[in-house]
Specification:
The structure holds two protein chains of two kinds. Chain A contains seven helices and ten strands. In chain A, the strands form two sheets. In chain A, strands 6-7-8-3-9-10 form a six-stranded mixed beta sheet, sandwiched between helices. Chain A has a four-stranded antiparallel beta sheet with strand order 2-1-4-5, with helices on one face. The N terminus and C terminus of chain A are likely disordered. In chain B, about 55% of the residues lie in helices and about 15% in strands. Classes of the chains: A alpha/beta, B alpha+beta.
């Protein structure tokens, strides 16, 4: 996949293979996969359980490395980076939203959102201001001092989104962001991700089972057993 | 590194943290006290000087030396002065109210022990009055003895034939500049005892238990000890001459290998608490595995999450250790009073407290390092997969 003159390719995977060993058996999760996403796109990756969606997202987010192939994201070849370099790269380029929210339970919403900013050269007051702004963007300014246990699932996920965008990353990766939510909360979260994409120009990649969630994306691709389905547009 | 996470995670399970900190505090307190006991046993040996020799019977410490030996010892070249010392072995009011009493040659004894400071009363009176005595500060405080009081002591080895207790007038109260003796003992003039025995007013073995020698400056104590032993090789009573340090060490060994015993107990306490804290930290590590994975996913380095886990172990142990050290420091005067007779040199020294600090820190580092190392190696994807 090559970029056009108007847009820039943010994600480019070529011949990516990832396999795990389980009980002595080699299980291929992604099989020589190619994939490209342009800057500012909102893409939904769909597929049944075990199809390799989360593994693909982990590779794009620099949380995992492929056995074969190249993963170029935001201009960086991730397969060539060491673990500390990958950690630094993640801090500057990617915001991740997980299905289980993954907020730190002993920290308040404000403190959870501030976490990625601890890696940036900011003063405490600057961090507070940025986190407050991010919480305001997701409509939770009045819940800043609440701990995750004191929030509803939808609110927790919105805090997680605030944490993902607070450091102004190029890319937002959302792994089943509506998986644990009721319909109303799920719609609200998807609308928020759409707004971040449309208003702030963030490139958003959403892994989801939910066809309604996928419908809100500009483009959907389908994975099955580590390969693109024929109707997919991954390659 | 998100330092606030260290504290927040520690208070995540308040009861567990409180119990662990409490256990640590008690263990560190016990270790401090046990160490202070061992140190107190060795205090006499440590503070001994090389210019004092002790002559005792080669047969046993309980066999007295003839009075004639004093003159012969004075005549040895290199001997500056000689003082007799006799264990009296009596008790005050009740046998359980024990403190040591010794008959001594006052002037010679105090002359060779400049560490004794008469802080109340009159040194002169002790040197000149037959029934005067000086009392250590701890015994004076324990029984409320004051200068001028009469202290009745019931003899066991030396008994008055009229059946009455011995009476000593308190001429002074002493304190020690260093722990060469202890501050529980009563010293009275040996002459008073000797005259009572010679006049038939009291019964008991003649002679003196040991004779202290103070050496002239620059004299080799080993040579003098050998000369003294040789002098009485064919005498009525063969002698064994030792340095003050060797003599005091004999007493420590006479009560059994207490330092080894106490140190072993301390080692056991240390091992038990180390395992308990490691267990707590491993539990904490397992519980926080998912959170550490989140931190890594956000971009925190392996060493940053290592620091968060290690910091928890260190903070836990530093707080527990500080409480234990504080407790040991605060309670040491009371413990010294309680154990003063058996462990007269009991003192919570700065060295003991410093070692306890180091030990607490060491336990913290060790207990935190195990889960921290596992967390450092953890991959974020594994944390989410297994934690799901």
């Amino acid at each position: 996949m090559s970029s056009t003159a108007a847009t820039r390719t943010v994600v480019e995977l070529n011949g990516v293979t990832r396999a795990y060993s389980r009980g002595g058996e080699r299980i291929v999760v992604l099989d020589a996969l190619d994939f490209a996403i342009e800057e500012g796109e909102r893409v939904a990756i769909m597929g049944p359980s075990g199809s390799g969606k989360t593994t693909l997202l982990n590779l794009i987010g620099g949380l995992d490395k492929p056995e074969l192939g190249s993963v170029r994201v935001a201009g960086e070849e991730l397969t060539e980076l060491t673990p500390p370099e990958l950690a630094r790269w993640r801090a500057g380029n990617v915001g991740i939203v997980f299905q289980g929210f993954n907020l730190i339970p002993v920290l308040s919403a404000q403190e959870n959102v501030e976490l990625p900013l601890l890696l940036a050269p900011l003063s405490r007051s600057e961090r507070r201001a940025h986190a407050a702004h991010a919480l305001e963007l997701v409509g939770l300014a009045d819940r800043a001092s609440h701990r995750p246990g004191q929030l509803s699932g939808g609110q927790e996920q919105r805090v997680a989104i605030a944490r993902a965008i607070v450091s102004d990353p190029t890319l937002i990766l959302a792994d089943e962001p509506t998986g644990d939510l009721d319909r109303a909360s799920a719609d609200s979260v998807m609308a928020l991700l759409a707004r971040l994409n449309e208003e702030l120009g963030k490139t958003v990649i959403i892994v989801t089972h939910d066809p309604l969630a996928a419908a809100s994306a500009q483009r959907s691709v389908h994975l099955d057993k580590g390969r693109w389905k024929s109707d997919g547009e991954g390659a | 590194m998100p330092i606030h996470l260290i504290f927040r995670n520690l208070v995540r399970h308040k009861l567990r943290t409180a119990l662990t900190v409490g256990s640590l505090a008690i263990a560190v307190f016990l270790l401090c006290v046990l160490r202070a006991l061992v140190v107190s046993l060795d205090a006499g040996v440590r503070n001994s000087t090389s210019d004092r020799l002790i002559v005792q019977s080669a047969v046993s410490l309980f066999v007295n030396l003839p009075a004639s030996y004093v003159g012969k010892l004075k005549a040895v070249e290199g001997v500056d002065s000689v003082a007799r010392l006799q264990w009296f072995g009596g008790y005050y009011q009740d046998p359980s109210s024990f403190f040591a009493q010794f008959g001594v040659d006052p002037e010679k004894f105090l002359g060779m022990y400049p560490e004794f400071k008469i802080v109340e009363g009159s040194r002169e009176r002790f040197l000149t009055e037959r029934t005067a005595c000086i009392i250590g500060r701890q015994t004076a405080d324990r029984y409320g003895f004051k200068v001028g009081d009469t202290v009745p002591i019931i003899g066991t080895i030396f008994q008055r034939l009229d059946g009455l207790p011995w009476e000593f007038q308190v001429a002074g109260i002493y304190e020690l500049e260093s722990i060469v003796w202890d501050e529980t003992t009563i010293f009275f003039p040996f002459d008073y005892l000797e005259e009572s025995l010679e006049s038939g007013a009291a019964s008991g073995p003649p002679g003196s238990g040991v004779i202290y020698i103070h050496l002239a400056e620059g004299v080799n104590p080993v040579n003098i000890a050998a000369e003294v032993d040789g002098l009485f090789e064919n005498g009525p009573q063969r002698v064994q001459t030792t340095t003050e340090a060797e003599f005091n060490a004999q007493f420590v060994s006479m009560v059994g290998n207490i330092p080894f015993f106490v140190t072993t107990i301390g080692g056991g306490v240390l091992a038990a608490i180390l395992l308990a804290v490691i267990n707590t930290m491993l539990l904490a590590g397992r519980e926080q595995r998912h959170d550490m994975g989140v931190l890594k996913a956000l971009g925190f380095s392996d060493w940053a999450v290592f620091g968060v886990m290690l910091g928890q172990g260190v903070l836990l142990c530093v707080v527990g250790g500080a409480l234990g050290i504080g407790l040991a420091q605060l309670s040491s005067p009371e413990i010294a009073k309680l154990l003063g007779t058996m462990f007269p040199g009991f003192e919570m020294t700065s060295e003991i407290l410093t070692n306890a600090c180091t030990l607490s820190l060491g336990i913290g580092l060790l207990s935190g390092a195990l889960p921290a190392a596992a967390t450092r190696k953890l991959l974020a994807v594994d944390a989410f997969r297994r934690g799901a």
